Amino acid sequence: MxxxxxxxxxxxxxxxxxxxxAAARREKARRAPAKWLLAPAVIFLLVWMIVPLAMTxxxxxxxxxxxxxxxxxxxxxxxxxxxxxxxxFWSALGVTLLIVVVCLAVTVGLGLALALLFHxxxxxxxxxxxxAVAPFFVMPVVTGLIWKNMLFHPAYGLLAWLFRTLGFxxxxxxxxxxxxxxxxxxSWEWTPFAMLVLLTGLQSLPEDQLxxxxxxxANKWHEFRHIVIPHLGQVLYVVVMLESIFFLxxxxxxxxxxxxxxxxxxxxxxxYIFQGTFxxxxxxxxxxxxxxxxxxxxxFAIFLxxxxxxxxxxxxxx
Length: 318
Known about the structure:
Layout: H1 4-59, H2 78-84, H3 87-118, H4 125-133, H5 140-151, H6 158-165, H7 173-176, H8 178-203, H9 207-215, H10 220-231, H11 233-248, H12 252-257, H13 269-278, H14 283-317
Helix pairs in contact: 1-14, 2-14, 3-8, 3-11, 8-11, 11-14, 13-14
């Protein structure tokens, strides 16, 4: 037979359980209105993303060419087979990946160097920061026109004047080095973004950690390698992810400067889809290419997330 002490203990446990359940019910009831308030925004975002994607997927299986309106109907996998056998598509895919990889390396590297520079105190730092950030606020179309007409132009561009002043023959950059020119423009535009985000991360770096490693005799490289980089791990992850999304969709710089040329030397996937839609008016094949671009972006994001997460975990383990 249970004694009074056991009965009291059981009663206390039951009372605590009921109290916890009541608190959970009150918390759930309190959060319920917030869910309903968020519902319109969530539904809008789903419609904004899912409906265009679904329509693109639907048209990718249709015969839909605006120049041949009489040819309609279900195409099956024909558009994807045409895309698979198109060498221009594979060239555009390679150009897209090259732009993403090189621009990431350049913008993150230069952004980190500038962030480390502007993290130090020197005369005129505020003005220098403003000038360094300015390219990020220039629209992509304006960026393309500035570099095309004011810098890269072989007759009256700034680089042409500089080459003639030094006794060299001016270079038609957009004709001879189209892809390098596109990468230069995109990197110039996005390096300030990487610098801003990384500089914000550096400003949250605890000074006591740096003082501790200095007292232990660590040099500048060890300080950078074992303190600064691990501290900026999450920030670097954000920079790489955001910039990758925008680099995969680069269009305006190509449209306003090289128009994908010479030939297809600077044609990436967005410009390839644009040409298929607004030049050849082949909505079916262009939709198939757009689905391919979406798949590429997801594959790239998955590998990038795993790569960055693995490096962060390895850094934490050390």
